[in-house]
Known about the structure:
Blueprint: E1 6-9, E2 24-27, E3 30-33, E4 36-37, H1 50-68, E5 78-83, H2 89-99, E6 106-111, E7 127-132, E8 134-135
Helix pairs in contact: 1-2
Pfam family, one: Ribonuc_L-PSP
Organism: Echeneis naucrates (Live sharksucker)
InterPro entries: RidA, RutC-like_sf, YjgF/YER057c/UK114
Amino acid sequence: MAALHRKIIDTSSAPAAIGPYSQSVVVDRTMYISGQLGLDVASGQLVEGGVQAQTKQALVNMGEILKAAGCDYTNVVKTTVLLADINDFNSVNEVYKTFFSCNFPARAAYQVAALPRVSTDRKKNSTILKLQQLMLS
């Protein structure tokens, strides 16, 4: 079996991983980006302004990881959105469609019981986004 070409993508322009994992891994011509919260790069804290501000920041952070790999949002073929409250689905979509305006990637969205770095009193206003399976061109 042929060896896979594997490359770690890490950029200081996006929040550092908060655990023992990489921001992104490229295997051959497929890129996997770890989930991103709406964290401010400088402070490492969730941005203020609720779910739309956090969604925007999470997507900006992912854009920086994409850029570090020589890609952009047009390379994305699959995303996963994890919400602390599924009632925020429409609010997230309003922001999401400003980053993916046509030829939308496939997507799944779920409500989850907990998100990392989110205190109990802020759960309702938090979202995490995960991009998967980017085809590099």
